[in-house]
């Protein structure tokens, strides 16, 4: 019996069924990964956890509600390109393939790493354009309403950003032979998990914000809080090299948690002054049905 793959799974012969399936899978996986992270670090945080939160304050429930709402809309739109890619692969209208046999292990490994690097530059560049171009900023600025984001903000963008974000999933299989299973795994697992880390709001004790290679949760919080129209700061995803090359770096004093610790901040006395919002309202239907969706961070 032939083992089902993304290239021959019968459901993908119908584009609308494919889109519905990918949207459902994306929605569930987003709510699980972001939801668990949010519950552990935001609902009832400890002092030891809070010491590593970049912004000492917590976002309002209204802000988190808007993040979730925009993320669910985003999941629908961002599922379009991969759905079309699977549909085209089903009818051999693209160069997508499955398995290792046709091109061999070396090709697949090199392509996995090469597409990772190319995609990372692409993700940086379209995001950078979103800040230096007035037309692009008009669309992207809605994501920057979340100056103190939570893990639910990973894809809390509007339609144009969602299309550009997911376009490589459609373009790569059309342009070059690509193992679509590895490509989808790379995006669904590695990219989203790292995106959750970047929007975590906390800094890792194992990845220093001052490291010269990887963008950290501090770098992305810095981006959300300081990067505005005509002022691109840390628009990269994985690697810092792109921002370093384009000069989109922060020149002011660092405020990462390690620097705050060194300055004598983040004491137990400081923590006692922090108000932890009651996020249980997010589970109340009436909170979602209200007509007033204004919020402050």
Number of strands: 2
Mean pLDDT over the full residue set: 91
Poorly predicted ranges: none
Overall SS class: mainly alpha
Q: Fraction of residues in helices?
A: 55-70%
Radius of gyration: 20 Å
What is the assembly state of the chains in this entry? single chain
**Tally the helices: what do you get?**
13
Termini gap: 55 Å
- SSE string, helix = H, strand = E? HHHHEHHHEHHHHHH
Strand line-up across the major sheet: 1-2
Q: How would a crystallographer describe the biggest sheet?
A: 2 strands, parallel
Shape verdict: globular
Strand content: under 5%
Give a quick rundown of the structure.
By secondary structure, the chain is mostly helical. It has helices spanning 15-43, 47-50, 61-78, 80-90, 104-132, 134-140, 159-175, 180-198, 217-226, 241-246, 257-262, 268-272, 285-289, and strands spanning 96-97, 178-179.
Descriptors for this entry?
297 residues, mainly alpha, two-stranded parallel ribbon, 13 helices, 2 strands, 1% strand
């Amino acid at each position: 019996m032939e083992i089902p793959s993304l290239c021959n799974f019968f459901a993908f012969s119908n584009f609308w069924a494919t889109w519905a399936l990918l949207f459902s899978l994306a929605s569930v996986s987003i709510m699980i990964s972001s939801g668990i992270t949010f519950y552990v670090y935001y609902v009832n945080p400890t002092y030891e956890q809070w010491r590593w939160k970049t912004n000492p304050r917590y976002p309002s429930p209204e802000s988190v509600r808007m993040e979730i709402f925009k993320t669910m809309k985003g999941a629908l739109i961002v599922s379009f390109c991969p759905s079309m890619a699977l549909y085209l692969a089903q009818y051999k209208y693209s160069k997508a393939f499955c398995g290792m046999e046709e091109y061999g292990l070396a090709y697949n490994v090199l392509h996995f790493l090469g597409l990772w690097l190319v995609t990372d530059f692409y993700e940086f560049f379209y995001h950078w354009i979103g800040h230096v171009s007035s037309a692009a900023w008009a669309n992207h600025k809605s994501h920057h309403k979340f100056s103190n984001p939570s893990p639910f903000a990973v894809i809390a963008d509007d339609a144009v950003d969602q299309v550009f974000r997911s376009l490589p999933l459609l373009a790569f299989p059309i342009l070059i032979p690509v193992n679509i299973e590895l490509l989808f795994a790379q995006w669904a697992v590695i990219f989203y998990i790292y995106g959750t880390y970047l929007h975590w709001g906390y800094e890792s004790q194992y990845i220093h914000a001052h490291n010269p290679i990887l963008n950290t949760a501090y770098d992305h919080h810095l981006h959300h809080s300081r990067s505005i129209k005509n002022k691109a700061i840390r628009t990269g995803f994985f690697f810092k090299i792109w921002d370093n090359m384009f000069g989109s770096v922060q020149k002011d004093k660092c405020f990462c948690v390690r620097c705050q610790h060194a300055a004598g901040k983040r004491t137990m006395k400081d923590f006692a002054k922090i108000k932890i919002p009651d996020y249980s309202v997010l589970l109340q239907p009436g909170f979602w049905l209200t007509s007033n969706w204004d919020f402050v961070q």
